Amino acid sequence: MSYPLTAAAENRAQVRLTSFVEVTCPLFRREELERFLAVFDGTLSGWGLDLWFGHVLGADIPGRFGVIDAVTVCNPHDRQKPGGYREISQLRPDAERVQEYLRAEQAHGIRQRPARVFGSLPLPCGLHAPKADAPPPRAALRRHAADARLFAAFERSPADPSAAA
């Protein structure tokens, strides 16, 4: 994760009510996603997208966004990935994506807000936090290995498929 607020908290049996959810793996109620997609013009690819949906969906309102600490996501830092770069950087350079966000910010009145935690709630009945010393499930380990092979293959492939012919 790129933001300290979205890293799993020590108390994994909670949902933290926040003013920010990172774009890596948000979950939306259908009507909220539709509300955002009604204004999203497709100009952003990654950088700033989380700020835009936060702006549209009311990130300032306590209880609108949350981080479920029992659910963790493996998103290695760039230096840990094959080639040492983010896959999305192959789509468009980071500096270009930042400029896209700054144009969208001005065009749509997006305000950057400080990321904060408003409070927390216990996990709903029936959900359980993993034990602190529990190893990742085998399926997750297999998936991570498969992703690493896929990224390595992507790195070896030419940027333009017609260049290989």
Distance between the termini: 38 Å
Principal-axes geometry comes out as globular
Q: Please, how many helices?
A: 4
Decide which structural class fits the backbone: alpha+beta
Annotation keywords:
165 residues, alpha+beta, 4 helices, 3 strands
Please explain how this structure is put together.
The chain has 165 residues and is an alpha+beta fold. The protein has one domain (4-158). The chain is built from 4 helices and 3 strands; from the N terminus they run βααβαβα. The protein has helices at residues 30-37, 49-57, 94-108, 138-156; strands spanning 14-18, 65-68, 117-122. A 3-stranded antiparallel beta sheet has the order 2-1-3, with no helix packed on it. The longest helix is centred in the C-terminal third of the chain and has 19 residues, at 138-156. The radius of gyration is 18 Å and the shape is globular. Mean pLDDT is 77; it is low at 137-165.
Report a brief summary of the structure.
Helices cover 31% and strands 9% of the residues. It has helices at residues 30-37, 49-57, 94-108, 138-156; strands at 14-18, 65-68, 117-122.
Topology:
Layout: E1 14-18, H1 30-37, H2 49-57, E2 65-68, H3 94-108, E3 117-122, H4 138-156
Antiparallel strand pairs: 1-2, 1-3
